[in-house]
Amino acid sequence: MTAIRLIVDDIRYAVRVLARRPLVVGAAIVSIAIGAGLNLGVYAVLQRVMLESVLTASAPERLVRIEPGISFPNYRDLRSADLPIDLALMQMARLTWRTPDGAKALSGHVVSNNFFDVVGVRPIVGRTFTASDGDRTDLVVLSYRFWQQLGGDAAIVGRAIELNGWRYEITGVLPGDFRAVAIASGRVYVPIGARVTQALESRRAAQFDLFGRLQDRVTREQAVGALRAAAGPIEMRFPDVNAGLARGFAGSSMDAFSFLRQIPPGRMVLGAAATLYALVGLALFVTCANVAGLLVSRADERRHEIAVRVALGATRARLTQQFLAESFVISMLGCAAGAAVWMIAVARLQNGVLLSSPTEITAIPESLPLRYCLLLVCVVTVACGVAPAARANRLSVIAALQSRRTGRLLRRVSLQRVLVAVQMTISFVLLTAAVFLLHNLLRLQIADPGFDITHTLTIDVQLPTSAPTRNALDLRRAIQAAPGVQAVSWGWPIGPPFAERIRPAGSREAATVTADVHRVGPRFFGTMQIPLTLGRDLNDEDVGAVAPKPVVVNETFARRYLVAVDPIGRQFVRPRDTENGRAEQVLEIVGVARDTLARTVGDAHVPVVYVPQSSPSLTVRMAGPAASAIRMLRQTVERLEPPGTVVDVVPMADSVATALMPMRVATMLLGAVGAIGIVLAMTGLFAMVSHAASRRTFEIGVRIALGASRSAIVRMIVGDGLQIVAAGCLAGAVLSFGLARLLQSVISSQSLVDPLAFVAVILLLLVVGVGASLRPATRAGRADPMVALRSE
């Protein structure tokens, strides 16, 4: 009880002490709110996306994700076996929702009829469909936010909505915190059926995600072993489509981290997440350094009070406890402010943009993890309180009681100067990365992408499942007849930085090469105005060709893998994709196309293979500007397609801008964090220079009395601040160069060291240093020498 009483007394005294300097305390609280708010928000998102179960369920630790995907007929056969795990299926689906205002796109989940039994979730309104509903496929369960979008009426149960051209009966509403996937869940849940799923009876179409709940006293390894044993007879009955089915099964927990670390694209995502968390960690470090510098200055101002307390018997432990108590109060207020701002921003976002979105964003939690908040308060308290406590414990009691400043206060290398230099170093690294991304983004936006974006559009067509299957070639010919249309194909020239492995025909598995594979249509290169340097364009017959499949490669592919041979006629083998039901393909090169912009980040030139394959999306080249044809093309497609079809027509320039959005977001994020670091570093530099100038009052008076001009005093103080800026720039340049070389070896073969970025950031920090040092310097230059000489 005595220890608790002492802590309470220290906190009460800390509040009284801090209340005397509201400006300093306010600046410290705002700084912590910025750094801690960013850190709390990013950690909450990463924890929800990476570490928590992606499927909200009772006892989620008993759920097991089974890899790879599975077809519906194989699932039915597995369920008929006696297994120690209850299996269920789920598939993300794009649906069309018929409303009085027309058809709209809607994201949903197609699930097995026992899905909610396995998950163990209770609805807040009505009921979910269960295995007892049998073969009914006309039921739908709504997400909470979609229910709110429809008005939030509890009497909605039993009503019908039209999805994919079919009427569905609403049976219930899920809780607000329920989610089915890590980032973006669907707004409706419907049973598996021909209404929403194509190729339902094909054993090749391994399109469903398989998971299950372990029965009592059953381990994950035992369940996977039982699955492999049950899959053996299925593989023997259908060897042509189920080769390797049994040995391919593997189990993992339902968190995204366990899944992502198993695949190369997932490891890239994990690396990006770790980088993001490191960035906000750096921002928090800058914040703590800034606040520690302010509190160190405050400790120097309180040297007489500290000396009196030591003279009256206060131990170093008690002084340290008192400074930590003051840091704790500031940290609590700052972290609370940051958490409040985050929660308000999320609430506005959820009630605004995300409420009307076709997809339900589940990656942004509405609450913050309490344990992490408390941990962050403790970390910030120690990080901000140790430096002023150490400064106070090193104070000369005799000099402080006599109100004298010792030479130790004028050291060229002090704790406060080191903290400010560290802030400058981190700000330099963040700003250099932001400037590099901005330069790369501008280069991508200004440079010629290698294809026509002025006269081309993309048309995304989403048909209701009830609509009859139509031939993409027939639709292309119909649009070709529209006025002003010069060419029609499909395909997208830009893709994510994920490459596939293919191997030269007749070679061993070890001889694989990597390339981006783009799905395109007939006369794609003529439509996009991409020149062919060898061979021919793709045609209508190539879409239906099976073996070999005619393809076109770009110049980088030919230059990297076929440098000494004629590319035309060369064959490669593309491995089968069991998840999407694609068999092994033999690809034969019929043409070589000029290089174009192929990725939004990474190498400037990457190998690309263009495969002719049907697609619901179209690419149209107009005789005139693309933007003027949007309405006409939408009406044309809507007349050709059945009711309930969602048609989205977007100019190619807008599509390219959307593809560059991840880089734009990364640039904005880095720029924002760097700007925050600059502001905090500027605040710390200002406080340090002001404090140093006040400590040199007597010296300044002597200099002026001996004939030093006021401009010389200003230059001396500003130069003192610029020395710290220069040290931070030097350390930041070395660190940035090392990080750039490391990233270059991992993600890109092009140089990531941009001299212009270094020069721009150095100039910016020098301007910031001059700005932060100028006011205390001019105030010192206007000092009255008589008053200054009496200060000692």
Strand order of the largest sheet: 2-3-9-5-7-6
Percent helix: 40-55%
- Helix/strand structural class: alpha+beta
> In oligomeric terms, what are we looking at?
single chain
Distance between the termini: 45 Å
Main sheet: strands, sense, barrel:
6 strands, mixed, barrel
| Low-confidence region ranges | 404-413
**What is the approximate shape?**
globular
Share of β-strand residues? 15-25%
Helix segment count? 25
> Any idea what the radius of gyration is?
33 Å
Mean pLDDT: 78
Number of strands: 23
What would your notes on this structure say?
With 792 residues, this protein is of the alpha+beta class. The chain is 50% helix and 17% strand. It is built from 25 helices and 23 strands. The strands form four sheets. A six-stranded mixed β-barrel has the order 2-3-9-5-7-6. A hairpin with an 8-residue loop joins strand 15 and strand 16. Helix 21 packs parallel to helix 24. The protein is globular, with a radius of gyration of 33 Å. The two termini are 45 Å apart.
Write the SSE topology:
Blueprint: H1 2-19, H2 22-51, E1 63-70, H3 72-79, E2 85-99, E3 102-111, H4 115-119, E4 125-126, E5 139-142, H5 144-149, E6 160-163, E7 166-173, E8 184-185, E9 188-191, E10 208-214, H6 220-237, H7 245-248, E11 250-252, H8 256-260, H9 264-301, H10 303-311, H11 316-351, E12 360-361, H12 370-393, H13 397-401, H14 415-446, E13 456-462, H15 472-480, E14 485-489, E15 500-504, E16 513-520, H16 524-528, E17 532-535, H17 540-544, E18 549-554, H18 555-561, E19 571-574, E20 585-593, E21 608-612, E22 617-622, H19 630-640, E23 646-651, H20 652-659, H21 661-695, H22 697-705, H23 710-747, H24 755-781, H25 785-789
Parallel strand pairs: 3-9, 5-7, 16-21, 18-20
Antiparallel strand pairs: 1-10, 1-11, 2-3, 2-6, 2-10, 4-7, 5-9, 6-7, 8-12, 13-22, 13-23, 14-22, 15-16, 15-19, 17-20, 18-21, 19-20
